[in-house]
Amino acid sequence: RYISNHSSGLQGLSIANAALARGAKVSVIAGPRVPESNSSIKRLNVTTALEMHDAVHQHLDGVDVFIGVAAVADYRVEAIKDKKIKRAETQDPNMSLRLVENPDIIASVVASKSAGLVIGFAAETHNSLEYARSKRQRKGLDAIIVNDVSDHDIGFNSQDNEVTFIHPNGETRYPRQSKGQIAEHLLDEIISVFSKQLDKK
């Protein structure tokens, strides 16, 4: 039993594959249920948000572009039991789970100043653009990519996506299409918008 979401990792893998095809050296830090990746991609498998945070910071050296695609949980259960909690052993018919905040991985990457460009994702359910714009500025991201995960035909656990790429000088909306196509568009735009910064690498 666990608290999670329906994120499949497919958009992250699509971006990794597109970057690999363009000649980039690619590393992927993958959570549970993420499908197998290309053997030419360095892959680190993690289970928890804490493990992902540690893995990210252990592999930031020399990173030109960090793209945080994973839909990491904002909170985790404070105390994890190693045995089943049996109904007969509890006095109260109601049960409460105390949640504590997970580390903000993308913000910690920005704060570390270790990566050249830091690009985040925002999985939103309402006021998507407004929240994404605020999140980009609040966390100091170079760009943010937002999608509406309240639409069950795109985003989480789907082959398709529909996103808006937001950066300091503008916004570009990419209508519904395959996650592979979205990945190609995003990399094209990242290279175009940040070409001067990337040329310095």
Characteristic terms for this protein:
5-stranded mixed β-sheet, alpha/beta, single chain, 6 helices, two-stranded parallel ribbon, 201 residues
Give the structure's gist in a few sentences:
By secondary structure, this protein is α/β, with parallel strands linked by helices. The protein is 31% helix and 24% strand.
Plain-language structure description:
The protein is of the alpha/beta class and 201 residues long. Helices cover 31% and strands 24% of the residues. The protein has helices at residues 10-21, 49-58, 105-112, 128-139, 179-193, 195-199, and strands spanning 27-30, 42-45, 65-68, 75-77, 99-101, 117-124, 143-148, 160-167, 170-178. The chain has a 5-stranded mixed sheet. Strands 1-2 form a two-stranded parallel sheet. A two-stranded antiparallel ribbon has the order 4-5. Helix 1 crosses helix 5 (179-193). The longest helix has 15 residues, at 179-193. It is globular.
Task: Compile the SSE list and pairings.
Elements: H1 10-21, E1 27-30, E2 42-45, H2 49-58, E3 65-68, E4 75-77, E5 99-101, H3 105-112, E6 117-124, H4 128-139, E7 143-148, E8 160-167, E9 170-178, H5 179-193, H6 195-199
Parallel strand pairs: 1-2, 3-6, 6-7
Antiparallel strand pairs: 4-5, 7-8, 8-9
Helix pairs in contact: 1-5
Total number of helices: 6
Instruction: Decide which structural class fits the backbone.
Output: alpha/beta
Main sheet specs: 5 strands, mixed
- What fraction of the residues are assigned to beta strands by DSSP? 15-25%
Global Rg: 18 Å
In whole angstroms, how far apart are the ends? Answer: 45 Å
Mean pLDDT: 91
Shape: globular
Question: What is the helical fraction, as a range of percent?
Answer: 25-40%
Q: Which residues sit in consecutive blocks of at least 5 with pLDDT less than 50?
A: none
Total number of β-strand segments? 9
- H and E string: HEEHEEEHEHEEEHH
Strand order of the largest sheet: 3-6-7-8-9
